[in-house]
Specification:
With 108 residues, the chain is mainly alpha-helical. It has three helices and two strands. Helix 2 crosses helix 3. The structure holds zinc ion (ZN). Zinc ion binds next to helix 1. The site of zinc ion has 8 residues, from helix 1.
Length: 108
C-alpha cells in the first residue's frame, strides 16, 4: 500500500452551487466557488465575476473538465473513499477504465 496525501476535508454531502447570485460555479468552501472564496479571503467581499457558462448542456465544470453531474459524484465518492485529491481520483478512474478497455477478450 502506498501513502497518499489526504484530500482536503469538505462537506461533500452538500455539493451545491456558489452562494453568489448568478455565479453558478460549483461550491468550493464556505458556500463559495473557488474564485469567490478567494475574493472573500483576500478582500472580505465577493466581487461580481463573469457568469459561469456551462460548456455543454447537462455538464458541470470540474477540475478543468466538463463532466456530467453523475460523473462528478462518482469521482467525489472515489476521492473520499480513497483519500485522493480530485486529480488523483480522476486518474484512478481512468486507469480502471483503460485497464478494462484494453483487457484481452476471453477466447471462446
Ligand atoms: Zn462564485
Amino acid at each position: 500500500m502506498t501513502l497518499r496525501p489526504k484530500a482536503p476535508k469538505q462537506d461533500l454531502s452538500n455539493w451545491k452551487i456558489c452562494q453568489v447570485q448568478g455565479c453558478g460555479r460549483l461550491r468550493f468552501s464556505k458556500k463559495y466557488c473557488q474564485t469567490h472564496h478567494r475574493h472573500v479571503v483576500k478582500t472580505g467581499e465577493a466581487r461580481p465575476i463573469r457568469p459561469y457558462r456551462p460548456r455543454s448542456k447537462g455538464t458541470v465544470r470540474y477540475s478543468g473538465l466538463s463532466l456530467s453531474a453523475a460523473t462528478v459524484e462518482a469521482i467525489e465518492r472515489i476521492a473520499v473513499q480513497r483519500h485522493l485529491s480530485r486529480g488523483a481520483a480522476i486518474a484512478f478512474a481512468l486507469e480502471i477504465w483503460l485497464a478494462q478497455e484494453t483487457k484481452p477478450k476471453p477466447v471462446g
